[in-house]
Amino acid sequence: MKTATTIYTCTKCDAQSPKWTGQCLECGAWGTVAIGATSTSGSGSGSSVRLSGQTSRHPGVPPAKPEHFDDIRSEDSVRLPIGIDELDRVFGGGIVPGSVTLVGGEPGIGKSTICLQVAVKISKNKKVIYASGEESAAQVKSRAGRIGGGTNEMLFLGETEVETIIATLNHERPALAVIDSVQMLRSSEIPAEAGAVSTIRGATAKLVEFAKRTSVPLILVGHVTKDGNVAGPKTLEHLVDAVLSFEGERTGQLRLLRVLKNRFGSTDETGIFEMTGEGLKEITNPSAYMLEERNGSTPGDVVSCVLEGTRPVLVDIQALVQPTSFGYPTRRATGFDQSRLEMLIAVLAARGGLNLGQHDVFINVVGGLKIKDPSVDLAVLLALASAHSNQSLGDLVVWGEVGLGGEIRPVPATDRRLSEAARLGIKTAITPLPRNKTSVRLKGDIEIRDVHTITEALTAVIKTKA
């Protein structure tokens, strides 16, 4: 005996429930729950699901003819160069025809600015369409004028209905189209408001299908949630070809463009920019930029080297250690993981003999950079020891991952890190001990002091007071 079960679906968040409610139990929206599907189950040979009155069984549909891989001709796509070195690095040499790229980031971080710069750069000799549902034509033109450069071949489209946008792109056939933003898109075929999960997913799927059919590359702008995911959440990342994350502190000038996904290139590249009144400017020498205002004679100041993509970047780690005025000491970290800082303080006490249990500890990464590379562990420990002993460590660079046993583990790309430090004139490097190597080696003009425990590292740089 077969029974039919009605499934109700929220048109805003796609949550499902077996009964109708006035308010969605997941997203809290009112009046968005409607009949979404009917499930038929029972003792028959199978079950079927009907969506909007259609059955999932299609006996009259003819099969498609698959192609043999040996008969498929492989062609290398000619990329569209942007003309901005940092962006071309991130895109893998340029924009692939027919690709769909999603640029995500927090509101106000500069997503629209960097996409507009790409459009302005390419529009000097190729047709570009900039579609925006968040700004008027006058506002976009004003920002384009502030960025600088001619926009002879740039067209503005103030439209949010995806069917109209696709029809316009199909008629104009531009070299590039920018959609700002996907959260503002709506569709006449989807009974949901703009910003709903179903609307975002359906509109993006239509745009992807158009891009693959016409080879017109698209750049989509998307906002992120408080969790750092593209608002949806993460419902678009599997649809597009590339996902770029635009990061930085809105109060600072440094901006990073990281590659989270790229079907046509490497995911190990990062573009580094500076936000100015004339838009985003690429930083060709990030190490010099990070150390520009550094005072090497200050206690608690240590230089480390991290990898941003495949590029080594020297960063300035600052520490401040003071006796606590309260019963529970304060631990604060800016640009560094708070939990990892607490772990390193515990390792420093248990394995290095330096107990900071009655001290307030502050760590700051200069320049607004957010570091996730564990190679800065040793630099943080030595900065804490330097601040506690009030001793300056001088002009040296430090890196190495610290384990719970107090051991210092080697990190990748040691040669590239050493070359970057030597290029900026640093004379001494403290690094983990590689296998089958001597304890002190010379590489160019750098003296390398290899250490394999935090005790050895502390002994090498901190002078014991008599």
Label this structure with key terms:
single chain; 466 residues; alpha/beta; Rossmann fold; Ribosomal Protein S5, domain 2; 3 domains; nine-stranded mixed sheet; eight-stranded mixed sheet; 28% strand; globular
Structure, described:
The protein is an alpha/beta fold and 466 residues long. It has 3 domains: 3-55, no CATH class; 85-284, 3-Layer(aba) Sandwich (Rossmann fold); 288-461, 2-Layer Sandwich (Ribosomal Protein S5, domain 2). Helices cover 24% and strands 28% of the residues. It has a 9-stranded mixed β-sheet with strand order 8-7-9-10-6-11-12-13-14. An 8-stranded mixed β-sheet has the order 17-18-16-15-19-22-24-23. The protein has a 5-stranded antiparallel β-sheet with strand order 2-1-3-4-5, with no helix packed on it. Helix 2 (111-122) packs across helix 3 (137-147), helix 4 (162-172) packs parallel to helix 5 (197-214) and helix 8 (377-389) packs across helix 10. The longest helix is centred in the middle third of the chain and has 18 residues, at 197-214. It is globular. The N and C termini lie far apart (91 Å). The model is unreliable at 44-56 (pLDDT under 50).
